[in-house]
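no rush on this but wanted to send it before i forget. theres a chain ive been looking at and ive put its sequence and its fold in token form underneath. please have a look and point out which stretches look like helix strand or loop to you. thanks a lot i owe you, the record is right below:
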Amino acid sequence: MNNLPSGTAMQDTTYLSATDLLARFRDGSLNPVDYFEVLAVAAERQQATINSAAGLFLEQGRAMAHESRRRYAEGTARPLEGVPVIIKEETSVKGWPRPLASLVFKDVVAVENHPIVDKLLDAGAIPYFQATNPEFCVLGHTWSKMYGVTRNPWSQAYSVGGSSGGSGAALAAGVAPLATGSDMAGSIRIPASLCGMYGYKPPFGRLACAPGDEYMVQAVEGPMTRSFDDLVLMQNVLSGPHPASFTTLPYTALPTEYGDLSGMRIAYSPAFGHPALESDIEHNLQQALDGLRRRGAIVEEVDLRWDLDEIGKVLLDGLRALFVDEFMTDISDVDAEKLSSYTAHLRQQASDYQPSIMPSAALGQKLHRDMQEKVWGKGYSAFICASMLTTDLPADQDPVAQPSLNVGGHQVDAFLGWVLTPPFNLLNRYPVLAAPTGLSKLGVPTGMQIVANAYDDETVFRVASNHAQAGTSRLFIEQFPVMGQKA
């Protein structure tokens, strides 16, 4: 192979951003075939300890890398030409398995691409790494009977989050610069924060959904990346109409450069008044807010006191009404023995009562009125809060075996009580961007959520751009995971 570095330089090449990678492909200092082989080594090596791959499609990737090298030579390269991409197992790729991490559906194979996969392929990207998710994507961690436990490259005893945890872990392990995720209750933002990534939950309609998901307005697909510039790059490729979707909005590309925040008013509430927020998460959040102040923003705390237990219950009921019980009703008692504990628990709940989508719409309106009164109506352009209350989360945490967690001396529900993401799935037209803020005392990344009013995507990207420029987080700049044996 040519142009392949060794030692520390190899890590630097492995962790190249897509933006830098494209520049090197264009100037000829690196080519897609050689680069793909570097990542293939990283992809196979991480599996022994991190276990973030549901499948590796290396020969398919190699063939596409050769095609990309030819296109660069001919001058026909496309916007993401030759860039390897991680695809969440839930996201359909024609011909790839799609069991949703369930032994019950182990033989299911996707018969068509998800619209965002079509967009990646049209842009010249190379999907080759299929990332793990929990069974039916209904857990905030990433483990299942089918795939086992996915571990955090930063500190392997701890959770990568979920349900896009395999995507977050694979990005942190350096197997590609871009990944897809999906978000029903924080499934992009939780692993983005716990793995040190940027992740974007776009407002519903910004990206084309899969056929049949048009009424799941709480759930969207979105990009996950190690750098802010890559998040812009990927979001611009993924966004906009697709022939398979009738709910997608027209789209104007996001800017690639943003000015400072002079005069912008930003509201924040660390945890909606929840007393269990760990001090290291709040410390890192306050450092990030100070960075935004240095960039010219006026940042002020507002008093939002939301019942996170109520929000989590109402959201989960709505998702069950539209999504979860669809699988449960078709599973026989014999097949139920194959389920992971948390999906078996949800199956039992499905037989006990009929959930409804209507309370989620009513509660979303209530939350919006509170935001209108205290944030948007007061002249604030953006809102910021932490992504979760704690990083002290075992990789194999089982909320059925341990229904509550002790966080800072407070008991919280083990399913959703430790995350601060679900409100914005009820407020599903709000754009929300997760950004890294540093490392916790456990060596696990921490993150924050940047929120704007309905369909104001550009504002959250402007704030995130300034956060990146402020440099208060050094993750994947000066700090990288050290992946050895399990702790």
Q: What stands out?
A: The CA atoms of residues 35 and 49 lie 23 Å apart. The chain has one domain: 8-310+356-470.
